[in-house]
């Protein structure tokens, strides 16, 4: 395949593009170091395994993937799942290498079977519950580690310094990187000068990783299927959903099956070298803010990380473990969708039950059982809600529909409308993300017409809330037309309407037209 096409470079690529990618890649590579260290500790495989993920796995995912600026590496959900697997007796480096490699092979099979689109079919209530359960597991393990430390005073002092910086820094300095590097540096200096009793992380290897040649017992191959499958599923869901989010921001088309194939290749190769499982992570959004244009950014980031580990890995021996604990607790806290939890009483009861049951079973029993049970509950809820609404449709019209704005409209290039007909469900999320994302980027105002909407589920409402936030950030005004009471309740519960003033809620097309006139600063055509 042509290299330009492989790197998703479909136009002339000049020095200005390379400089932008190199700058963003270097910045993201350096910023990823603290989180990568922390997630390696959380996984139980060690920081080196996380760096192998952020370099080897991420490089192959970038090379074979299908989304610009999608950043892959260690992720909190997969780190905790890895730690859960390692708790089982008899699991060592060879067994874990097989699990990671097998998970990558599953992802390749998913891609070849064209299953990537089904990643968006997991209801958001289940995914939110699963991540909340993962956060509980991580918090419990880190609190236990903190309490088991021998030098209590030094441990808690360093922990407090790091935690205070991680909480206060984002409020004082508006950067996308949340002060993680500042917290680690400050805590390390404090540990060296004042609190020498705090445990240290240990040095990273300063050589290239060697393949894992030890083979597990034949009996373990069947045992590895379950853990590998759940790692593959969760990694696939996160990768495809982050790819959709990145595509909605950039306006670029993406190939979800190709992206899943790239993730699988990355995990297969990474697993052979002792890496922990990886997937797309939150650095994707940061790379777009930093000006990334193509996957060259990701490749540069991998090179920067590899150079740092090989050249400066010995200095990680100075980093205090309590600072890593503080970072992991903050990461766990941010993993929970607190907005969803605050509104759990307002959403339909079935979705709340699915979320809470998934979280409880994931945290207290088994992540695979939690995910499976949550899917079952959410599926039953969704089936009941769609019993009388079998089809769904999202219709975008530009210029605005004639029933709202009339013929020969002078605002055609400045306004758009999205009509939601029938049932709007999680199956609509991909189309919804693309169409509304396009309308937001192309127009100064968009009418969301819910006058013909029968129902809307939690996943579609979550996508709408994300896009409404995007519209607010970009200055695109939203007008909401004619939602029924149940639909409006769902929109409010998920925060879709929090940036829509009461005056922009219209119950008739005529009122929607008047509000559009007020927004665009024009008199209504043909009248006052």
Short overview:
This protein has 528 residues and is an alpha/beta fold. It has helices spanning 3-6, 15-43, 47-64, 76-86, 93-112, 124-147, 152-172, 180-193, 218-223, 225-250, 256-272, 283-289, 296-312, 321-335, 338-342, 349-364, 367-385, 402-405, 429-442, 458-474, 485-493, 509-520, and strands spanning 72-73, 279-280, 392-397, 415-424, 445-449, 453-456, 477-481, 505-506. Helix 10 packs across helix 11 (256-272).
Structure description:
- This protein has 22 helices and 8 strands.
- The chain is an alpha/beta fold and 528 residues long.
- The strands form 2 sheets. Strands 3, 4, 5, 6, 7 and 8 form a 6-stranded mixed sheet that branches. Strands 1-2 form a two-stranded antiparallel sheet.
- It is globular, with a radius of gyration of 24 Å.
- It starts with a helix and ends in an 8-residue tail after the last helix.
Would you list the SSEs in sequence order as H and E?
HHHEHHHHHHHHEHHHHHHEHEHEEHEHEH
| Separate helix tally | 22
Mean pLDDT equals 83
Question: Describe the biggest sheet?
Answer: 6 strands, mixed
Shape: globular
Helix content: 55-70%
Determine Rg (CA atoms, Å). 24 Å
**Residue runs with pLDDT of under 50 for 5 or more positions:** 387-392, 399-406, 523-528
Proportion of beta-strand residues: 5-15%
Descriptive key words:
alpha/beta, 22 helices, 8 strands, about 60% helix, six-stranded mixed sheet, about 525 residues, disordered C terminus
